[in-house]
From TrEMBL:
Matches recorded under PANTHER family: GLUCOSAMINE--FRUCTOSE-6-PHOSPHATE AMINOTRANSFERASE, ISOMERIZING, GLUCOSAMINE-6-PHOSPHATE DEAMINASE
InterPro entries from the UniProt entry: GlmS/AgaS_SIS, SIS_dom, SIS_dom_sf
Keywords from the named record: Repeat
Biological process annotations from GO: carbohydrate derivative metabolic process
Molecular-function annotations in GO: carbohydrate derivative binding
Domain SIS: 36-175
Entries under PROSITE patterns matching the protein: SIS
Listed CDD domains: SIS_GlmS_GlmD_1
Protein name: Fructoselysine-6-P-deglycase FrlB-like protein
UniProt keyword Aminoacyl-tRNA synthetase, yes or no: no
Amino acid sequence: MSEPQSPSVTPAAHMAAELASQPETWARAASMTREHALLPAPGARVAVVGCGTSWFMAQSYAWLRETGGRGETDAFAASEAFVDRGYDAVVALTRSGTTTEVLELVERLRGRVRTVGVIGDPTSPLVDLVDDAVTLPFADERSVVQTRFATSALALFRASLGEDLAGAVADARVAVAEELDPALVDAEQVTFLGRGWTVGLAHEAALKMREASQSWTESYPAMEYRHGPISIAAPGRVTWQFGEPPAGLADDVAVTGARFEAGGLDPMAELVRAQRLALARALARGLDPDTPRNLTRSVILGG
């Protein structure tokens, strides 16, 4: 898909084009069988690290890999990673390949633990630091607010674990084409919930809403929601579940007067719906998520 050459043509032009291209980028990532083989083999004890969005995708991959019987798998924010625990490999997920915390961690592990980078920019310094690099340049982005790289990386991970993503790709086509409900765009507050591998998706959906539209959003494991956070549910607010909801949760939310949103699409396609909502809310507020407040494409820390 061609992208606009000038970011000033239309507000959020890059984010809009990039999130709409996800069915194609997922299918391409799922087909990369040679690159799948570079990821840690079944039975390996693995840590997956990232920052921000990449950390949330790491959480989803770790849950899927471990519960799929592929080996113990932990996810860490790169700045808080406990990687000196006898891991066989560390997978570093980063769009830019320039994030300070990831580079420092991989540098520290050189020669001691096998490292695999899953990277958007094939010219980044991380490519030469890791033992094996899986690059996804077709999923890299111009918008500061990340959409397709994260989900394409997760598509790569899911396919590497033996999952057929044809249904997810078809659902993504639905998600990018459907008409958004204005009530969602106008909602005062949104809380995203997940279970198992979709907890990471819920956290990422909330982050997208904060980054793109400066919205009040929160995210939790679904079973934790009734342990306090449900207190903010009220008319004009939304509780959005990724995947199958816990028994009785929809009824509990209905009592509060809040809207309970539980779409039937693949949870990754539901994340696309949330990305589109973040974009729509940003535009309604006169904001441009291609250049959001206080954010840059990569966090590079000074010495």
